[in-house]
Amino acid sequence: MHIKRKTLLSTFIICAFLLGSLAAPVAALQVNMVEETFNYAFAPGENNHTYVYDSAEDPFYYSRSWMHFNEDTDLTAYNYESQGWASTTGTGFEDTTIPFSWQSLNLMTTGIFGNNPLLPAFYDFIGSDGSGAVINTTIERRSFSLSFGQNTPVMMDTDYAYFGTLAISGQEFVHLTIASHQDEIDWGVYVIDPAGRFIGLTINADGDVAVLPFRPSVPGTYFVAIEAEPDNGHFAMFDLKPEAVAPTPIAPGQVITDTLPTGEYVLLDSGSFVHDELKPTVRTYKINPGNDVSALTYSFNYPESFLGLTQVVSISMTNDAFIHGSYNGNRYVTGVTFPDTDIYYVRGGVHYITVMGGDNTGYSLYHESDIATDLPINQEFKIDNLFSHSSERIYSLVLEQDSVIKINSTSTSDFTINAWATYDNGYRVSQNIVDGSTLLAASMYYLPAGEYIFDVTVAAYTSEWIEFTIAPITTDLSADVVNVAGFIVPTDPCRQYNLTISLNNLYNVSVPMNVQIYDQFYTSKPSVSPTIGTWFDGSSQIEHSTHNNRYEATLDTRIWSEDYAIILVSTYPYNNTVGVGDYYENYAVNLTIEWEDVTHYNFNGTTTLDAKTSAAHYNFTLGFPGDSSEIYSVFLNTTPGTWYNVSIKTGDVSALTNAYSYAPFMMNTHYTGWGDLSDALQGASPDWSFQFGAISDNIYLEITVSRSLITEGFLWVELIP
After folding, report:
1. How many C-beta atoms surround the C-beta of residue 425 within 10 A?
2. Phi/psi class of residue 196: alpha, beta or left (left: φ > 0; alpha: ψ in -120 to 50)?
3. If residue 704 lies in a helix (H) or strand (E), which one and from where to where?
4. 595-622: per-residue pLDDT in tens?
5. Distance of alpha carbon 532 from alpha carbon 529, whole angstroms
6. From CA 148, how far away is CA 296, in angstroms rounded?
7. Of 607, 627, 637, whose CA–CA distance to 717 is shortest?
8. Separation of alpha carbons 514 and 436, rounded Å
9. Which of 174, 234, 304, 482 is the most buried (most CB within 10 A)?
10. Residue 230 main-chain phi, psi, to 5 deg
11. Given a cut of 50, is residue 57 above it in pLDDT?
12. pLDDT at 59 > cutoff 70
């Protein structure tokens, strides 16, 4: 069966409409709950299949969705994953209505310098008897407004998510109080900014009163989502109250000492001693490190009471930075519950510190400025810790350009090294850097340009040497390399590249090297460890007996990002007339990097088809004599959200042995292998068909066939939207 035509409907249109209908209504003395219900019917196409595309382009929020079946209906869902898709099947029975989520989307995993974009899904419905089935879905949205300084009661059906809207127009900091009015329930509240980024969340249980502190990102309408799951029952009641807060500055050298006075054991006028759920005391402070590194030392003193603590004590820190995560990332927030004494190090802009709790818990905050030492680089230095406990050394490093770092020490078990920075794009990234026993054995790490804090934790009774070796990463592909270097090369998604490294020195030198390759988001790619070398006869290079002066490799991947890749190189040059042990310390190895696109070098034939709106086909001629296995590449122009049928007819072909696709997606490459593409495989030699959904404007489709090698053959490929 070949699919001739398909009707595709995007739930994104529905969800965008729902989002567009949300606004921040004027303040009211009682909650103004808006309940919206939208019903949609999706009709089948000419082949009796109904196809629905679930886009992932923008965030969407709804309370609940349902699906009603007028007849027994079979469903196949294709939920795209980092590679390929997860295909699941199910059946809906006549005259039944079931909960059905249109946002069960997966994430594409990237490196630590990139966000993980949502991937779309396709749904294929057909009547169980092969007839066309109309798919009816209902999407419900329950929303309410929040206003600063106003208490808003929310009565919830716990089978639904509820969404509050809060207009923020310049408030520096916000405390959102949430009071639960029942026990035996788990509940959570999430704050989402206008760009779809998580700004804050709190997960709680029972009849607690919680405060969610958060730093707004931009002016606009924020969503406050609340979900509840009771042990029994179907309803829950909450009060929500947002309050704008002016944080208290802590100047350099200043000490704040205070208590958290609230407690939940109360003595009534009647003389009764009772428990009362109360809002914890919450105070927010701010420190500005200026152009230096500051330290905030905090300590807590808990009451010694046989009754114990009735409120959770915590300290949290945040600033304007985000951390990479799903979709556009999340607000950077760190902290600890029931803290004791510790130090929080900051640089780059204002940082906010929130202390929360009660029961007369005492606390102190001390702001100490300019506490970091400039990090010595490319030279060894000694670190001593003569105490019986570990201690920290704080260093500052400003990198004007992207760099590579290796760290080696005389005792790798005595140092724990963390480095972090907030970059120009507003994202904060932290890396744990492991030192090696030698420079050659140490791992290489990528450090983008930025202002760094290096936190080195030193074990007790330590007196050891350490060296931080750093070199810039350059776009100049011919350079002198002393120990380490980095190169930036251009990449495009779905392409294949050849790497060549040439040694240019006029000397008797061999160079074992470690080459690690990453995409721009720091996703690891193939690594190689060649040894190149040359001899020198006094006037020119001559060929070494075992080491070529040129290393070449075709990298076994086509999964690249949209802009560039990073090649990190470490070298260990030695005199090859003496032996490996004769290391040339700090010797400049002159290398040339060549980076060549070789995507189509290994195909027996290539073509381009435009199937954005209508069917397109191409016929490859399979020469005789040919190869027992041949690969053909078709570059497709497609329409995202369209389901395609691939029809294949052949001559002098004994088997369709493989097919796979590469698609550029959100600055990355999405790969789908034959294990997924063959889910809907039909036919047998000489004709086959299979299906896939387009998630981008272009797709590389590669087809491998086994030849009979009896005569000249053909491979006819048709793409039908």
Report:
1. 11
2. left
3. strand 698-707
4. 999 998 889 999 999 999 999 999 999 9
5. 10
6. 30
7. 607
8. 14
9. 174
10. -80, 155
11. yes
12. no
Domains and CATH numbers, the chain: 8-141 (2.60.120), 147-245 (2.60.120.380), 248-368 (2.60.120.380), 373-471 (2.60.120.1090), 475-597 (2.60.120.380), 605-720 (2.60.120)
Q: Give the tens place of pLDDT for each residue, 389-448.
A: 999 999 999 999 999 999 999 999 999 999 999 999 999 999 999 999 988 889 999 999
Question: Which amino acid is it at 279?
Answer: K
CA distance 72 to 95: 8
For residue 417, give both structure tokens.
Answer: 């090294």
What is the biggest distance separating any 2 CA atoms in the chain, rounded to whole angstroms? 105
Which residues, including other chains, have CB under 8 Å from residue 306's CB and lie 6 or more apart? none
| 7's tokens | 């009707």
How many angstroms separate the CA atoms of 448 and 450, rounded? 6
pLDDT at 275: 63
Q: Which two tokens stand for residue 562?
A: 């949209």
Quote the tokens at residue 372. 């970091």
Looking only at the bridges linking them, the beta strands covering 668-672 and 653-665 are antiparallel
pLDDT of 24 over the 70 cut: no
Q: Which residue has the tokens 């779905």?
A: 494
Residue 222's CB is within 10 A of a number of other CB atoms, namely 25
Half-sphere exposure in the Cβ direction for 678 (13 Å, CA): 11
Q: Please spell the DSSP secondary structure of 285-307, one letter per residue.
A: EEE--TTS-EEEEEEEE----TT
